[in-house]
Structure formats: C-alpha cells, structure tokens
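Please, structure for the following, as tokens.
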Amino acid sequence: MTYQDIVTAAGRTITQAGPGWHGIQPEAVARMRLQNRFHTGLDIARHTAAVMRRDMAAYDADPGAYTQSLGCWHGFIAQQKIISIRKHFGTTKGRYLYLSGWMVAALRSAFGPLPDQSMHEKTAVPALIEEIYAFLKQADARELGLMFRDIDAARGAGNAVEAQRLIHAIDQYESHVVPIIADIDAGFGNAEATYLLARKMIEAGACALQIENQVSDEKQCGHQDGKVTVPHEDFLAKIRACRYAFMELGIEDGIIVARTDSLGAGLTKQIAFSRTRGDLGDQYNAFLDAEPVAEPECGDVLIERDGQLLRPKRLASNLFQFRTGTGEDRCVLDCVTALRHGADLLWIETERPDVAQIAGIVDRIRTEVPDAKLVYNNSPSFNWTLNFRQQVFDRWRAEGRDVAGYDRARLMDAAIDDSPLAVEADDRIRTFQRESSQRAGIFHHLITLPTYHTAALGTDLLARDFFGAAGMLGYVQHVQRREIRESIACVRHQNMSGSDIGDDHKDYFAGDAALKAGGAHNTMNQFAA
C-alpha cells in the first residue's frame, strides 16, 4: 500500500469507530505503520531470505554481482554500517551483515571474554540477532521521521510539488533491514540442540545460518589448530535440523551455509559408520592414517581397506588422525556431500587468501555440482600485507624478475611500502574480491571481525590524544570535526537515539500539550549547520 492508501484506510477506520476516536490522526497512523514495517523476526527472515535468493540468482547469471558483509557485535555497529552504506552508495543492494560466533564469545558472554570454542551462552546468539534488527528498524523509523518532517515543512511553505516528491520517495523507500548470515558454530550440541537454537535464531530474524563440520564439544576457531571434524552423517543430520527449523517456521527459502574446516583439520573424534564399500562412511574412513595389523591387540579398533586389516592411529586424547595431505580431498568431499544433502552455500576455511588455491578447490567441486557457490571469510586472522607481498615476490622470482632488492623475511618493512612489489601486492588485495568471485565461485565476501579491530584502533588513538598533550582537541579534531564534515549521522546523537521520534509521538498523543525535547534550548541545534 502507498502512503496515501494507508492514510485513506486509517481515516475510514477512525470514522467508522465514531467520535471517541476523533483525536486519532489518519496521517499519524500511516506514519507509525511505515516506521514499523516488520512486526516479528519471522517477517524479517521471510523478507531477507527472498533478498538473498534474488542475489544468488543474480550471481549465477553474472559472477560480478557478488555480495559483501562486515561482522558486527552490537546493534549500533550494525546500524551505523548500513546507514553508511546508504549514504555512500545510495542502496543496500548486495550488502548484508555477518554475525560472528567469535565476536559473541569474545564480547557478549556473561562469562567475560572467551575464545571461539562454543563456550559462550547459546542464547547470546539469537539475542544479538534480535538486537541488531531492533537497531536497523530504528534506523528506518528515524530516517522516515525526518522525511515526514520535511513533508510538513514543504506543506507549511506551500510547496505541494516538494511534498508530493517526498511522498513518492517514501513509497519507494528501501529499508535498512538487510540479511544476516548468522554463525551457529557446530550447533552447540547434537542435532536436536542444533534445531532448537536454529529455531530461536530464525525467530529473531536470521534468514541464513552458517554451520560447521567440527565436533561441538571440541570446536575451535577455524584459524586455530586442533580442529576435529565429524563424519558426514553427523553433519548432515544438523543440516537437516536447520532445514526443518526453517520449514516449521514458514521460511521455506531460508539459506544454509555449510562450512568445512577439513582443509586445516587433521583429526576426527570417531570412525564413521559404513554399511557398504564406497558409501560416505567408507569414503570418510579411507582418509584415516592407519597401519597394517598382523595380530589384533586388546583394545584395538580396526578397519578393513582393500582387503587389508588396519589399525587407525589413535592419539592419547582418543582422537583419530587423518593422513597428511588429504585436507583438500576431504574438503571437496565435504562440500559436494553438503550441497547434495540440502545446503545452499559453502564456506571453505582456508589458511591464506589465495585466489588460485580457492579456484582449484572450487573447480573440483563444480565438476560434481556446477552451480556451487561460496561464502568466503576475508579474515583478519590473515596477514594480508605479508601474504600478498609473498605471493608477488614468489611469482616474480618464478618469472625470473629481479627480486634482489627485497628480503622475503622482511616484506612487512614499512620502508618498502611505496616499492613496485608493495604497490602490486596492494593492487591484488584491492581486486581480490572481484577476481575470486569471477574465478572461484565466491558469491559472498565477508570480514568476520572488522569492527572488533576498528573499535580497538579508534579507542587507542582517542586515548593517546585525549589523555596526552592534545587534551580535548584530540576528540574534537579527530572525532567530532570529522563527523561534522563527513556528514556522520550520529554527530546529532540525540536524534540518532530516537529523541525526535519520541517528540513526534508526543505530538500525536498530546498535541499542543506535548512537552518536547527538541526545542530551542536543545544543544543538538548547534549541529544544524
């Protein structure tokens, strides 16, 4: 319904209700409805799932149409990110949010800062999704409120054309509510626990769940050592649990991102169950590091491979070990299996950002599943500068180019920042997303922990200046003055927090008797210019 349609319908309802409703304004009703378009998390999940599905189809048609997101650990951070995207690019198309389990563990747990090992409260994850969407909905309400005030000002000035232009803009309004890809870790337990948590996350608004094939009680960050994977049937049960949660709640186009950590995981907690030779269990067990057995010993766990009895190597931790060098093969099998059993997108956790490596793996996957698409972590755990300078150095040397002026062990040295090698490396970093999306099937690029690092860096610089010789100038020069000159919305922090929305409501509710905060003595008026 258009703005005017809602006003007309509300006026009809108020008239039918009789004189007792005479104080209710149809246009105020329309404005409040438009400021609250999503009444539940399921409304959000339904809307954002459709957005992601359209974007996935667009990427299939054109690999240049990849999507992006930044990880957020607070609703305000997410809100400011989307406001900034709209300011700089005019649209949120192709831009999402990522909810990182790492940041929930490190920043949102009642236990205090924790490593990314699924030790934080599982309820913190849906709670953060709900918080993020509360802030995004408030961004809608704030921006629409400013547009409503502009309509009133245009009418007051007798400018009917401008008022109509604004109403048309409201009818075409693009919401700040964008998809969240939410990290459910390894499901926080068995398949039933995964289903229960998935349901809570979807009810909070998540349209895309990212789940990994590690064992829940031994889960590690994908960029740490000691990762332990589970047999495929265990993982597929959790993928099905997520799908059931989506379908139970009526989000039939919900997205499941299946993450494999097999590239860097050398351990498994259990030997897979196998019914017949060549089935999934048998394929999983074929990667186990094992030795021939002449005589079984007490306590032996044995497998048969090619007619030979073998003893899998078992560590003191009671974990079993995979053969060295099998990570990529296991990764390919994981991805093909996940896509054939209900996953929509893949996440391959690599040890470095290397387009050729990713493309090589994806080419193998696409021989089995031609439309396979990836979500890729542009991780802060990579030293991007060092990795790409090393890649350029190694390529130059292989091509016979002169690298005598560079020391491979000192490529982080600031002295070479303006050198041809460093310039080429930076250019490759800049084009990494575009190139890897074209060559390696990456539909979505995200950075898991960017706002963790920006918060730390910004706070360090402010503390250095404010508590040092600059004093208050440290804040004014590097924060407030830049906010004003770069049109950062939250420089008017009272407005950002919802003060003007509250004043509008006071007008609706009490009319001339309203006691409003935004009068002549509000110091926010100093920022009007």
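The domain at 41-266+273-284+324-384+433-457 is CATH 3.20.20.60 (TIM Barrel). The CA atoms of residues 191 and 238 lie 5 Å apart.
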